[in-house]
Amino acid sequence: MSNKAKGYAAHSADSPLVPFEFERRDLRADDVQIEILYSGVCHSDLHTVHNDWGATQYPVVPGHEIVGRVIAVGDKVKNFKAGDVVGVGCMVDSCRECEPCHEHEEQFCENGVTMTYDSDDRHDGTRTYGGYSNQIIVSEAFVLRVPENLDLSAVPPILCAGVIVWSPLNLYKVGKGSKVAVVGLGGVGHMAVKIAAALGAEVTVLDIAASKEADAKRLGATHFVLSNDPEQLKTVANTFDLVLDIVPVKHDITPFVETLKLKGTLVIIGLIGLAPEFSTVPLMFGRRAVVGTMIGGTKETQEVLDFCGKHNVVSDVEIIKMSEINEAYVRMAKGDVKYRFVIDMQNSF
């Protein structure tokens, strides 16, 4: 395959994604060239396209949940060969020299991580283009090995929605006997339920929609609590070791902090930018903690892929063609998907 790529790009905040042809860079010595088979659709793609965070540079080719097959490698690549099934997540480079990078926490790179799309390549300054395309070229240090026993079309969300919940579940040593609550059952939340349950935790879903109870239990939750019902919340006071709060809008987290056990932790995953509202009283009278997190590094991303391979955990997905992306964005904004869209790139161009 040549370096001529076909994809879909947005050219402004209020225009639809349209076909876009561009050149991928020449293969560097440590690069892996990947034919993209499937690309997940993340809510952050929608935010970036609409410039909701105020920093998008156009044209932008989104997509940071990529599964594909290696078609070429650079002269110094040691870990991959043509034919390997691989993944690329939210990052494609970092400084590799700071403390977070040495600890495989590249998402916290002190010199600025290079994101898979809409970021500046740290070597030549060109803009990165993402997975809404038929191929990509990435340094092997940011390429992940995908377990081939999994349904590859359902793997892409693991590379973002999966690792963002795996990271705190791993950090706080969730396992058999742990009690975990997931606040908000959506694209990320459903992966949190699946992975926490596979780790052996007793999982409770807290959500405002009673209609989600059956799905929550199908996905692996033991209990379901209406989060907008104070009486129901009282039944789980002082219960959880870990609460994963995936609600993406500003809200009062005090009722969820009160569900934590002594020394329990609430992890903010869904809310970016706006400070959450909460009372410090339940923090101080229970030595509870509220922390934030962001995706995961290359080590954790490989760990969650391996774990999902071992336990046969994948995302619940709806497969679409690239030409259907604008309709998918409208539906995603309405929450009309169970639970993630994945683009079939093999049948899109």
User: What is the CATH T-level topology of the largest domain?
Assistant: Quinone Oxidoreductase, Chain A, domain 1
* Low-pLDDT runs: none
Share of residues in helices: 10-25%
Q: From the helix content, strand content and strand pairing, which structural class follows?
A: alpha/beta
Beta-strand level of the residues, as a percent range?
A: 25-35%
Please report the distance between the alpha carbons of the first and last residues.
14 Å
CATH superfamily of the largest domain: Medium-chain alcohol dehydrogenases, catalytic domain
DSSP strand count: 17
How many separate helices? 10
Sheet with the most strands, sense and barrel status: 7 strands, mixed
Gyration radius (Cα, Å) is 20 Å
The total number of structural domains is: 2
Give the name of the CATH architecture of the largest domain: Alpha-Beta Complex
Mean pLDDT: 96
Order of helices and strands: EEEHEEEHEEEHEHEHEHEHEHEHEHE
Q: What would CATH call the class of the largest domain?
A: Alpha Beta
Shape category: globular
